[in-house]
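INFO batch 0412 | record 1 of 1 | parsing
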Amino acid sequence: MSINSRTCFVLIILMSFLAGCATDGKQAGGSPQIDRISAEDLERIMPQPQAVLSLDEIVSLSKQGLGHEQIIQKIKESDSSYALTPSQSVDLSHRGVDKKVLDYIHTSRELALRNKLAEEINKREQDKRAELAKLKQQMINRQRFEDPFCRYQRFGFSPYGFGAYGSRFGPRFGMGAGYFSPWGCW
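INFO prediction complete | emitting tokens
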């Protein structure tokens, strides 16, 4: 019984397909894990509005005839921040507040949001770097212990003897014997 070339080709394709199905996705480089911000964390991160200078006071300052620079300066001095909805902005505009004041209120809020999110991202990156440094140090320590030239030195004896220089020089004599070794284990 002979197998023709077409049957052999189909058999090879079928075996390749089955071998591909048998492997797990980790070998192919799975997708990276993304650390999402939960709703509670987002609520904690967001800067809370602090209206030391109330919106009614801003309206009254506008009606008194103060310019937009002076009103913005008073908002800066009082360190007030506002979370205005679009309808509140339109209402303030109808009540006589200058558009430059409203623009400043919105841009200062956006800037505060961006700064808080940037701080959180930087904090998470620093935590991730610290975790990677810790894992790297654990890997180096594990390699140091698993290296056959290093692990027995900690307990005071070496399975390899004293080398070509004899027992009077000890195991650390010569180049690379503790002086130039990166981990100091030879």
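INFO post-check: Residues 25 and 31 are 9 Å apart (CA to CA).
INFO record closed
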